[in-house]
Amino acid sequence: MQAKKRYLILLSAGACLLLLSYLGGVQLPAASRSRHDRSRTGYRPDQPWPHFSDPLHLFSPVGHTDTEEYNLHISPRQKRDGTASVYKGKRCRVDSCFDFAPCQRNGFKVYVYPQQKGEKISESYQNILSTIEGSRFYTSDPGQACLFILSLDTLDRDQLSPQYVHNLKTKVQSLPLWNDGRNHLIFNLYSGTWPDYTEDLGFDIGQAMLAKASISTENFRPNFDVSIPLFSKEHARTGGDRGFLKYNAIPPLRKYVLVFKGKRYLTGIGSDTRNALHHVHNAEDVVLLTTCKHGKDWQKHKDARCDKDNAEYDKYDYKEMLHNSTFCLVPRGRRLGSFRFLEALQAACVPVMLSNGWELPFSEIIDWNTAAVIGDERLLLQIPTTVRSIHHDKILSLRQQTQFLWEAYFSSVEKIVLTTLEIIQDRVLEHGSRSSLLWNSHPGGLFALQPVLTPDTWETSPSTTLHWVSIKPYPKFTAVIHAVSPLVSQSQPILKLLVAVAKSQYCAQIIVLWNCDKPLPAKHRWPATSVPVIVIEGENKVMSSRFLPYETIVTDAVLSLDEDTVLSTTEVDFAFTVWQSFPERIVGYPARSHFWDSNKERWGYTSKWTNDYSMVLTGAAIYHRYYHHLYTNYLPTSLKGMVDQLANCEDILMNFLVSAVTKLPPIKVTQKKQYKETMMGQSSRASRWADPDHFAQRQTCMNKFASWFGAMPLVHSQMRLDPILFKDQVSILRKKYRDIERL
Amino acid sequence: MYASGKYSSRGPALIPRMKTKHRIYYITLFSVVLLGLIATGMFQFWPHSIESAADWTLDKRSVHDAPLVHLPVSSPIPERGDLSCRMHTCFDVYRCGYNPKNKIKVYIYPLQKFVDELGVPISSTGLSREYNDLLSAISDSDFYTDDVTRACLFIPSTDVLNQNSLRIRETAQALAMLPRWDKGMNHLLFNMLPGGPPDYNTALDVPRDRALLAGGGFSTWTYRQGYDVSIPVYSPLSADVELPERQPGPRRYFILSSQTAIHREYRAELERLKEENGEALLLLDKCSNLSQGAASARKRCCKGQVYDYPHILQESSFCVVLRGARLGQAALSDVLQAGCVPVILADSYILPFSEVLDWKRASVVIPEEKLSEMYTILKNIPHRQVEEMQRQARWFWEAYFSSMKAIGLTTLQIINDRIYPYAARTYEQWNNPPVVKWSSVNSPLFLPLIPPRAPGFTAVVLTYDRVESLFRVITEISKVPSLAKLLVVWNNQNKSPPEGEKKFKCPECTAIDGLSLDQTHMVERSECINKFASVFGTMPLKVVEHRADPVLYKDDFPEKLKSFPNIGSL
């Protein structure tokens, strides 16, 4: 008994000890840890945000009583009218200063005022006007117009400039269609003058929109104005030079890290940053040079550093620095923008912006962080450290983006103007507008027209640069056969072609485009096929109708065929599998080439069998149906009209267009021997190839097209894609496309 | 404790026959244990008396403990927000400084309870659950600093999410009293419900000097682009309702309108659309038989039929989000959560996070005036695009709308991106769902460049010890005109590379004609492929059936005239 009690007591004592050690032992280390913390960091008055245990209110009561009450005393229509009358002038937005009605009625049409006698117009402004007049937006009927462009030169509003147009105020007010500037777009490159360089244009612009260079974020009316780049008189009207990046150096480092060469303003607006540049200059890889030598009386104002700076300045060549530097400093001048910006962009020298408050060009659509380093004038001294910290991959990517943006939106006056118009069009027809992705990736917004193809699968691979051409295209094609001769015999090539194409496992449907003057043949005259054959009567029987974006084309791929083309099923199958790897390019059989004829100083066209080619004829080619849309809507009426009138060159124009978009050559695939012979020995009377004028016309076409594009977009290729094992010395039974080799 | 007490009190009676020595021993032991326990208990349960507000009890604090601050009537009032403020004019960038991590430091003021001289609080609700969640999330994030001297951005703890619950003037005075206020410089306010009757301004009416405003419901006239941040109006249903993600595709209804307080003019317009297009549209309203309250927020009715909200949103391809008294609507969040494509009718509204989010990929914006054309406009959108938008809508909700934490941290990231633009998140990072980010390895080479022939190429030859084969390769490749440099990588540690033109005899080399015939070699390579594919999570390789040949390859054409006549001949 005693032993039992003793055990009991021992047990309870043990339990107590355990409890003690549990309560004390666990707590104490925690307490000591927190004490330790405090001793290390000292006394902290500010704790991290505490985790409150109280039940807290919700920020918003359930129910919509606010709106119910609000709705009782206000009508949406009244409210809209109220808004429109309040927000004018500097607070203009499309909601308050723009009339959508004419745009929705007639589409996005742009009217240019007729030029008045005696009015001088600068070359740059003339280029702007002629670009608009030559574009697909132009209308000569003000009643149709959505947007109005003045014929009065508003580009240079610096009173001290010789280009300055006087009395603009009265001239503008007296325009009968002015309507307080509503739906007008005013282009401007320079405004204000010494000493304050204001952004005022010196006349009342009313409710007009501005497409203005050097515009500041404070004056920029979002979604209303457009910030454009400053460009020089020499800026190409169309086409323009390509970017200077020819290949990607890895690692992407150049001789200099950061360069600048320009004027230094000793006093006044914009002088602070340039005056401080010498702090960062190290004469090695950061070369920032300034000169005081500008203006008539620079000697009077010069400071202690001027002579030394001027001497250093003369030692370096601007162009050499531009091309050999990874980054180019673009500091503000008297105004926010400078020519240097576009120069750096073209030279693939990543611009480092030091221009606080500049609304960068086309900021509404361009993501400048992908092509430039946006610095802060206040942090000039950090700039070298910042640019040095940028990773090589990022530099490579920034550099390429400068080239893409230069070529897509800036290389010519035409591109700058069209981009401006497209931006406004996107606002006007908002629900169909282009996403930022389309604007910021190759080939850019000017080639991504409405209605835009959906960026289907975002599984775009790095090699598929065209986002809107899906990487996984619809796995079938639509054949479009262009028929021009009547159906008289059952042995005509078109019927053989129809049967051969229909047998392809990838064929979804065949469209026969009946561009023949004879009436449509009866249905039973067409051979029976396993795929649907749709016969469409050509619109006006013109050539361009073969590239219309027919709604019946549901597949991504279009196999375009002439009626006399000879193709086997195997050839079609193989070409389609190749196209699936290159959905943005033309893939086909007969190839042609262009060359520069230096004697005649013009482009030449050749159908000779040569070692290279730059065109693939659309009489037998596969391409993305998007190009039908682009051909019809992007190209101007002048070029399409020429094609229709000659009934020729439509295939050349299509090649120009696709190469302008992709900057790549088309792809020729293997053709069966017999095909070549038939092509060469064509004697069919109906064939347009037999016409001796045909060839001469094609030369003319090429030169006309090249001048509209502003440059020669065609690119040569020396490559033909053959089936793997083609003509290899293995058993023919192991070859998938064996018919291509067989004679 | 109770048990031990009982034993110790009865101790002497229970052990009478124990030896005194033992008894004393036990009693002492018990007393020590008991004292220890009592001391521990004191320590445990009365901490406040030992150390005031000790930091290890942080987890259990009450908002009522916040210090009370009396606002004098004459306390200064900040100026109204300056519409011309931009980061380079109203923001002190020096506070952020150069920072290798390119991350701003954010300080949160400790909670204070502001009352006027009569003791009436400046806010009828005080700290809301949402604002508390937001501040907690920020204080748990990498942005947070407790060191006020090192902060780049300051966040007041005064809750201004809902202007309705605020006394405007006093709230402004309270802000101005903050120790680092300095004209509101670098201060960030979060507000979701701005304005008040009758006109409902689109930005918070509290005067705030230069403070940045993260506001829900900005219009183009109040939003200072590049300075303010447009944020969503948080929907409390986000936390309460779970809507599993649905596969994109056609839904039972084409257009759904589920908001309850729609202006009668707009409702009439919707009714007319419904008449024209029938079953494709579903127009819901609040249920007349349910009383106001939480329950009614979860129900919608149409002709006596009751629908669960927000679940019904998942049954439609498009969901209408009309403006109300305010431009920002919590319904937008519900609609996105349901993966329904929002059709936004709110003229001049600045969409949430529009600075970084590409709303064209996730929504359709239609001018209010065009409500009558809504059906036609939406019908013109291709199916594939609708599906893409459904997916994108859901992803926007998950990443940027689903919690106060998401909203708060997104806001800070946007400001962070402005301060360190060269380290900003990219368009793709903001807008592409993570699946996409993951599956495409971003190549830094993307511009279609055809490099000029001039710089030529560098040949890199990897070799082990088959010297004869190496020499053959070198001889052949050095004939190529565009070869600029030839680099031989000697990959054998046991042998040094051959010098000069010395020829080595290597009997094994001729024995095996090419490694690829070796069986084990093939097995190894198959294993490699499987291993790589499993690490990549997918098979990135693609099969093609073509091969590049010169244009005139094997053509019946004089060999002399071919650019590459030797290709194909063995």
Automatic annotation (TrEMBL), chain A:
Tell me yes or no: is Membrane among this UniProt entry's keywords.
yes
**Annotated InterPro entries:** Exostosin, Exostosin_GT47, GT64_dom, Nucleotide-diphossugar_trans
A single GO molecular-function term is:
N-acetylglucosaminyl-proteoglycan 4-beta-glucuronosyltransferase activity
Q: Name one GO biological process term.
A: ossification
Q: Is RNA-binding there in the keyword field?
A: no
Q: Which reaction does it catalyse?
A: 3-O-{[(1->4)-beta-D-GlcA-(1->4)-alpha-D-GlcNAc](n)-(1->4)-beta-D-GlcA-(1->3)-beta-D-Gal-(1->3)-beta-D-Gal-(1->4)-beta-D-Xyl}-L-seryl-[protein] + UDP-N-acetyl-alpha-D-glucosamine = 3-O-{alpha-D-GlcNAc-[(1->4)-beta-D-GlcA-(1->4)-alpha-D-GlcNAc](n)-(1->4)-beta-D-GlcA-(1->3)-beta-D-Gal-(1->3)-beta-D-Gal-(1->4)-beta-D-Xyl}-L-seryl-[protein] + UDP + H(+); 3-O-{alpha-D-GlcNAc-[(1->4)-beta-D-GlcA-(1->4)-alpha-D-GlcNAc](n)-(1->4)-beta-D-GlcA-(1->3)-beta-D-Gal-(1->3)-beta-D-Gal-(1->4)-beta-D-Xyl}-L-seryl-[protein] + UDP-alpha-D-glucuronate = 3-O-{[(1->4)-beta-D-GlcA-(1->4)-alpha-D-GlcNAc](n+1)-(1->4)-beta-D-GlcA-(1->3)-beta-D-Gal-(1->3)-beta-D-Gal-(1->4)-beta-D-Xyl}-L-seryl-[protein] + UDP + H(+)
Q: Where in the cell is it found?
A: Endoplasmic reticulum membrane
Q: Where is the Exostosin GT47 domain?
A: 105-390
Q: Which UniProt keywords apply?
A: Disulfide bond, Endoplasmic reticulum, Glycoprotein, Glycosyltransferase, Manganese, Membrane, Metal-binding, Signal-anchor, Transferase, Transmembrane, Transmembrane helix
Q: Pathway, per UniProt?
A: Protein modification; protein glycosylation
- Of which family is this protein a member? Belongs to the glycosyltransferase 47 family.
For this entry, the protein name equals Exostosin glycosyltransferase 1
What is the organism of origin for this protein? Cyclopterus lumpus
Automatic annotation (TrEMBL), chain B:
Organism from which the protein derives: Cyclopterus lumpus (Lumpsucker)
In Swiss-Prot or TrEMBL terms, this protein is called Exostosin glycosyltransferase 2
Question: What InterPro entries does this protein map onto?
Answer: Exostosin, Exostosin_GT47, GT64_dom, Nucleotide-diphossugar_trans
- Supply the alphabetized keyword list: Coiled coil, Disulfide bond, Endoplasmic reticulum, Membrane, Transferase, Transmembrane, Transmembrane helix
UniProt domain Glycosyl transferase: residue ranges: 457-499, 501-553
What's a GO cellular component annotated to this UniProt protein? endoplasmic reticulum membrane
Please report the record's description of how this protein sits within the membrane: Single-pass type II membrane protein
Subcellular location per UniProt equals: Endoplasmic reticulum membrane
Which residue ranges does the record assign to the Exostosin GT47 domain? 101-380
**MF annotations from Gene Ontology:** glycosyltransferase activity
**Coiled-coil intervals, chain numbering:** 256-283
Concerning its family, UniProt says:
Belongs to the glycosyltransferase 47 family.
